[in-house]
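Re: adenosine-5'-triphosphate structure - here you go.
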Amino acid sequence: SAEETLLELKGMHVFYGAIEALKGIDLTVRKGEIVALLGGNGAGKTTTLRTISGMLQPRIGEVLYRGERIDGIKSHELVQFGIGHVPEGRRVFATMTVRENLEMGAYKFNSVDAADLDRAFTLFPRLAERRTQLAGTLSGGEQQMLAIGRALMGRPELLLLDEPSMGLAPLIVQQIFEIIEEINKQGTTVLLVEQNATQALGLADRGYVLETGAVAMSGPATELLSDTRIRAAYLGEG
Ligand code: ATP
C-alpha cells in the first residue's frame, strides 16, 4: 500500500571525527514515493545518503529498512536489500564502455539479464546509441544518465540520487528529471538530493529541508513550494 514504510531514519547523528555533521535526523520514505532532500551547501544532504548506503555509520540513532536495522551493514551488502545509490559526481568507469558500465551495475546477480539492459537503453536512448563508446568520452549529462542506468541494473526498490542536476544545462536537467519521474512510475521509490529545490519539489511527493545537519522543515511538496520561508531561502525569492 501507499503507507508501506521502506526507509526510516531515527534520531540519526553522524560525525566526521569531532565534527557533528548530522544532529539527529528523522526521515521516512514510503514505498512508491519520490522524496526530495533539500538544503544549501554543507547542510548534510550527502552525509545523509552516505549513511543510508552504509559508507558512514551513525554514532547515535538508527537506520531501518523495512523495519530492519541496516546501520553498520557494509555498502556492498546493502545492495542485496534493494538499495541503489547514484553518488555525487556520477563516478562512471571512464575507461570502460557504456555497456560495460551498465553490466557492472548487475554485479549482484550471477549474470546480466538482457531485459535489464533493454530497459536501460529504452529509458536512455542516448546510451543505446553510444553503447560501445568509452564512458569517459560522454558529456556530463550522458554520464549522469549512465550512472542512473547502472544503478537500475541492480533492480533497486529504493534509488538514492545525489544531486543528479549538478553542473548540467537546464535542458538536460529537465530530461533527467523526466526520466526520474518515469523510473518512479515504473515502480522504483526515490530519495532525491537536490540544491535545485523548485524542480525537485515539482517532481516529489514530499520534501525535507536540511539546515546545518538538522531537519528545518518537512511536508508535502506542494506545501513546501508555497511556503514563504522556503521561497525566500531556496527558490531565489523574497
Ligand atoms: P553539498 O551540497 O555541498 O554537498 P551537503 O548538504 O551534501 O552539501 P555534506 O557534504 O553532507 O553537505 O556536509 C555536511 C557537513 O559535513 C559540512 O559541514 C561539511 O563540511 C562536513 N563534511 C563533509 N564531508 C566531510 C569530511 N569528509 N570530513 C569532515 N567534514 C566533512
